[in-house]
Design brief:
Layout lengths: L2 H5 L6 E9 L6 H10 L4 E6 L3 E6 L11 H6 L2 H17 L11 E7 L4 H12 L12 H5 L3 H10 L5 E5 L4 H15 L4 E8 L5 H9 L28 E9 H6 L6 E10 L9 H15 L8 E4 L5 H15 L6 E4 L1 H4 L6 H9 L2 H4 L1 E2 L23 E2 L5 E8 L3 E8 L2
Parallel strand pairs: 4-5, 4-6, 9-10, 9-13
Antiparallel strand pairs: 1-7, 1-8, 2-3, 6-7, 8-14, 11-12, 13-14
């Protein structure tokens, strides 16, 4: 245990005690881990209006497991993803939910964008009524307000503590975890439901925009379309998904005998302030270094680095430059990528990708980056695990990168307990 952790009282140490997720290739952590170790992709053919045939990572979970038909019809896909993941996380954490004071629970969900799907759908339907706005849905406003996904979760679970979504582009999943930990330390809540959600594949606008940028992946085999670091990569595969964690103070988790997936020991967020889209490797490196400093760790103490890399030509190169700056001399650090399996789940990406790596604390295996047939020389990284899982021995610390447009960067470090 590092010195900083030893100096903190248990009520200032934040741990993960429950995980609920849906990904394009799994609906639970066990299924997700199995898919990652087997190299099973969740990317498939997809068609959306105006854009036509494309590819996407599509989730297949039971929306009615925790929602009535009426509530689902009134709400949103992002809300439904959040509700499923939050309920699964609570069950996984072994919480006696009925006995918990709901005023002590906070909900902090990261999201890349929200409201585009619902607005596009309303405009499309309105066209059939000659744009007569009297046919506009009265559910539109609550569906599109920025707090919607977290608010739908709060309504479903009866939570009366704080809830809000965190707009942090594709760094949002990490941002949800960071916010949850901060609110627990401040005593603003006693239990946090934190992570990220995405309904991105249901808006044609995101596909059209990436396509106009030349950043939308194509491949004759959908399962091979998402290929970070590969010389033949040609863009992003858009995906939906979600991952919600139960976060608690270590003192509370120990008191109730909870199983603990890991401890959030360090984090950082910063901003490039240099470009709308192109990442800045210097700022990304500084973000990782700040997280390490906050955790009191040296780079060589990190066992696994989970990269953000999306499969774009320039973005992957920039992140690799940042990772080399921070971890270039470490012979003990292994590096992987999860988007190669599921595509880019936007606001859910950071939370999902972290979850896929957490079982390494138990099994000592680093899942690989798949579809890496020809490594781009500019993406050369020491310790990059490609195509086959690698047994790396005891894992103590995992660093999870998650970056987004307008230069927002995040890094989260989870330690074994």
């Amino acid at each position: 245990m590092n010195a900083i952790r030893e100096q903190l009282p248990d009520d200032q140490r934040i741990v993960l005690t429950g995980i609920g997720l849906t990904a394009p290739n799994a609906n639970s952590l066990a299924e997700f881990r199995e898919a990652l170790l087997e190299g099973r992709s969740g990317v498939t053919d997809y068609e959306i209006r105006y854009v036509g045939k494309t590819l996407a990572g599509i989730c297949d979970f039971d929306e009615r497991k925790y929602q009535s038909r009426k509530d689902r019809r009134r709400g949103t896909r992002a809300g439904s993803v959040g509700i499923y993941c939050a309920n699964e996380a609570i069950r996984d954490a072994g919480l006696d939910w009925e006995s918990i004071d709901k005023s002590t629970v906070g909900i902090y969900l990261g999201i890349t964008e929200h409201g585009n799907v619902e607005t596009e759908n309303e405009v499309y339907e309105l066209k059939g009524y000659d744009y007569d706005t009297s046919f506009w849905s009265h559910h539109h406003n609550p569906r599109t307000v920025a707090n919607n996904p977290a608010g739908e979760v709060a309504l479903n679970l009866g939570v009366i503590g704080p809830h809000y979504t965190i707009g942090a582009a594709c760094a949002a999943g990490n941002a949800g975890l960071i916010q949850g930990s901060q609110m627990l330390r401040l005593g603003e809540c006693d239990l946090a439901l934190a992570g990220g959600v995405s309904e991105a594949i249901h808006t044609f606008g995101i596909f059209a925009s990436f396509k106009s940028q030349g950043a939308l992946a194509t491949h004759e085999d959908p399962t091979k379309a998402s290929r970070p670091f590969d010389v033949d990569r040609n863009g992003i595969v858009v995906a939906e998904g979600g991952c919600v964690y139960v976060m608690e103070r270590l003192s509370d988790a120990r008191r109730r005998g909870a199983k603990i997936y890991g401890e959030l020991v360090g984090y950082a967020m910063n901003t490039d302030a240099t470009d709308f889209v192109l990442p800045n490797p210097e700022r990304q490196a500084e973000c990782m270094e700040q997280a390490l400093a906050r955790a009191g760790l040296a780079a060589e103490e990190i066992d696994i680095v989970s990269t953000h890399a999306t499969g774009t030509t320039s973005g992957d190169i920039q992140e690799c430059a940042a990772v080399r700056r921070v971890f270039g001399d470490s012979k003990k650090t292994w590096i992987n990528n999860t988007k190669s399996y599921i595509g880019h789940a936007m606001g859910a990406a950071g939370a999902l990708e972290l979850a896929g790596n957490l079982p390494a604390f138990q099994d000592g295996i680093c899942h690989p980056t798949i579809n890496l047939d020809r490594l781009d020389p500019e993406c050369q990284l020491r310790g990059l695990v490609a195509n086959e899982p690698r047994e790396i021995g005891p894992v103590r610390y995992i660093l999870n990168n998650s970056f987004g447009m307008l230069g927002i960067n995040s890094a989260v470090i989870i330690g074994a307990l």
